[in-house]
# Entry
Amino acid sequence: MDLCMQAAIEEARKGLEEGGIPIGSVLELDGRIVGRGHNRRVQKGSAVLHGEMDCLENAGRLKAADYRRATLYTTLSPCDMCTGAVLLYGIPKVVVGENKTFTGPEAYLRSRGVQVDVVDSPECRQLMENFIRDNPELWHEDIGE
# Structure
């Protein structure tokens, strides 16, 4: 498996260990990871700290030209909010660990010119399936149901 996706999975596991939702993300730029994060809504009492948002926050301020060369890796299909961040910053490629437990607006990202690659990782899917089974209320809160 790709080293960046493996790093995103490590982030997801950190989130789970902290009592949060196991979704992780990394931002790759020019062959190196410049940001990493995991869903910390529970841990921080946050309305917006999805894995991708935490990753972008931890990457710090980058130049527009940097975002246009970056790839965002995420263990789960990005939601509407995270999709908006990808579009806002002009990130051209998103690599998704799995989209079976949740599918965000991937078609919309593609329609806006973003390359979306779904790797269909059994490890990512198992993390989410176990979490959703064991924490249905928290899961539904996180996705706004």
About this structure: The chain has a mean pLDDT of 95. The two ends are 32 Å apart (CA to CA). The first strand starts at residue 24 and ends at 29.
